[in-house]
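[Automated response] Your request has been received and processed.

Submitted sequence:
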Amino acid sequence: MSVTVAEAAELYGQCKMWELKGVEELKHLSLDQMAAGYNGIGADWMPEALVKKITKYFSVFEPAAFIHDMEYAYDDDRSRDAFKNANRRFLVNCLACLYKLYCLTDKRLWGGIPKAWALYRCVRDFGWKAWEQGGK
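Generated structure:
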């Protein structure tokens, strides 16, 4: 799934506004690089139509996925520790997205927490190969 430079700018702005973890590390990237590095919520090998559906379903987490994709695409450190840290930051950012959008009495917050953990488990358990390959 590709995004336009304008869509990348909007996502980057959302990440900055919500002060998500890792957003400061994106300052050196151009908006063109950001647009190229973001593939939506889903793996590179998935059909684009499926990634679009998954991204729409989990749209609340899209800013977190944006930072996560930038790390996967452009981080120079391909160690196991850097992989774990990127994935933990993804979980923290997913939860932050929920807390920014919903109050504590909103059932969407509580329904979103297991979804955030499920996405985290996916990247933790199945993301190593993509991490190793980086932006290739």
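Summary generated for your ticket: Residues 56 and 131 are 24 Å apart (CA to CA). The chain has a mean pLDDT of 95.
If you did not submit this request, please reply to this message.
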